[in-house]
Write a structure and sequence with these properties.
about 325 residues; 2 domains; 14 helices; mainly alpha
Length: about 325
């Protein structure tokens, strides 16, 4: 559910935060720098940490194919040896979803170069990659476990039906930016209650639990749409604790596999393997994951990511400055 919701929110947020895009190469370049800096530093550190803590470090890289897997993992490329929608897990398993996210950033950035035609261009590309190419290959489906069998792993990724979640998020973002609204607060409250209840019902019944728009999208898409429209007319507050979990959620996503694997091993070494299962271990690994994520957010997301972003933006602006100075002006 988290991955499906993440893709929907991602499309929505990109529309909302780039509403003032002027379509210039400068704006697009800075958009990509900021997105890359936000994701890569903490992901790279988490991947390397997982490599050395859980996979025996350098000895793992010496085995056939593992060095390639590590390099592909760091650069958000699908490994190509697994089933959809991940097409082969990277070194840090949860990183498979970030391969899609980086792809979203690139196609979204390129569409901005077309100015007012950006949404038509984006829609055209999504139509080509999600409808035309699969159609020419013999099948158009919405199920995310469909394997089109392309020889190139990245072609399998960009044609995956999981991308419809991102496309729907973009559409919801455009609705949010439009004049569409619901003025009656009672109706809004009832719709909010119904949409959240639908998500809870789907979870409790285990109905269509996949990543697709007709799977978890059945309840998440209506909920996201109603929250987007409803928030235009009424303030929807969240508890501070949940807002903080939202702030650290990216680090929590990246670090929880390492915590969940390391703590049970530690208990086994202490000869207390009887404590490695059950609800108590769930609580312990959850608390530990939140603590690690809080540190990661403070020192990697806020610290290292901002440092990388500022350095890359400085290099970008210095490059533009050199190009804007003519040879004669430079000599004088």
């Amino acid at each position: 559910m988290g991955v499906a919701l993440f893709f929907i929110v991602s499309g929505f947020i990109m529309v909302h935060t780039t509403a003032r895009s002027d379509g210039s190469p400068v704006y697009v370049a800075e958009f990509l720098v900021k997105r890359f800096s936000r994701v890569w530093p903490v992901y790279a550190v988490a991947t390397i940490a997982y490599l050395f803590v859980s996979l025996d470090g350098l000895s793992y890289l010496q085995e056939a194919g593992n060095l390639r897997r590590f390099v592909y993992s760091l650069f958000f490329l699908p490994i190509g040896n697994g089933a959809p929608p991940d097409f082969g897990f990277p070194v840090l398993s949860v990183g498979w979803s970030l391969s899609y996210e980086m792809y979203f950033y690139v196609i979204f950035a390129l569409s901005m170069l077309f100015g007012r035609a950006r949404w038509a261009i984006l829609a055209a590309w999504l139509s080509i990659s999600l409808l035309l190419i699969p159609y020419l290959n013999g099948i158009v489906v919405l199920g995310t476990h469909t394997d089109f069998g392309f020889k190139r792993a990245y072609l399998n990724l960009i044609t995956s039906p999981i991308i419809w979640q991102f496309a729907v998020g973009v559409f919801i973002g455009l609705i949010y930016r439009s004049r569409i609204s619901i003025s009656n607060k009672t109706v809004i409250n009832l719709l909010l209650f119904a949409s959240v209840s639908f998500v809870i019902w789907q979870y409790m019944t285990q109905f269509e639990m996949g990543h697709g728009v007709l799977e978890w999208g059945c309840s998440l898409i209506p909920m996201m749409l109603i929250f987007a429209i409803g928030s235009k007319q009424r303030q929807i507050d969240a508890p501070a604790s949940l807002s903080y979990l939202g702030d650290i959620s990216f680090s929590l996503y990246l670090w929880h596999p390492l915590v969940q694997e390391t703590l049970p091993k530690l208990f086994v070494r202490l000869e207390r393997g009887d404590l490695t299962s059950g609800f108590s271990m769930l609580i312990l690994t959850t608390v530990a994951s939140i603590l690690v994520a809080a540190l990661s957010h403070r020192f990697l997301e806020v610290g290292a990511s901002n440092y990388v972003r500022n350095k890359l933006l400085l290099l970008l602006r210095m490059g533009r400055g050199r190009k804007s100075v003519s040879p004669s002006a430079a000599i004088s």
